[in-house]
Write a structure and sequence with these properties.
Layout (H helix, E strand, L loop, with lengths): L1 E5 L2 E3 L5 E8 L8 E6 L6 E6 L6 E3 L7 E6 L4 E6 L8 E8 L3 E3 L3 E5 L2
Parallel strand pairs: 2-11
Antiparallel strand pairs: 1-3, 3-8, 4-5, 4-9, 5-6, 7-8, 9-10, 9-11
Length: about 110
């Protein structure tokens, strides 16, 4: 199982970023996929989940209305479109799925700062 995130960077408050995560080594289309984040000194928290069947989606209250999770099963990829970014969104963002245990990518840093 391999999960590879990309798309992080430095952005000003109010700006946007789109993260991507490519999965391999498992049946991507049958897997629920999630984005988590971990800010310095804080615990890792769930940001958004997209189910495999039917594409049901859930968001953390802190990102509702600003972030959008989506998936492209043909490309084995999930995305996180992040709009109206705030300083408190600064964190390392991880892609994850559960396959006999929680599996993680290496993470991508998102920094929101002026």
């Amino acid at each position: 199982v391999q999960l590879v995130e990309s798309g992080g960077g430095l952005v000003q408050p109010g700006g946007s970023l789109r993260l991507a995560c490519v999965g391999s080594g498992f049946t991507f289309s049958s897997s629920d996929m999630s984005w988590y984040r971990q800010a310095p000194g804080k615990e890792r928290e769930l940001v958004a989940t997209i189910r495999s069947a039917g594409g049901r989606i859930n968001y953390a209250d802190s990102v509702k209305g600003r972030f959008t999770i989506s998936r492209d099963n043909a490309k084995n990829t999930i995305y996180l479109q992040m709009d109206s970014l705030k300083a408190e969104d600064t964190a390392v963002y991880y892609c994850s799925t559960y396959l006999g245990g929680q599996r993680w990518g290496q993470g991508t840093q998102v920094t929101v700062s002026s």
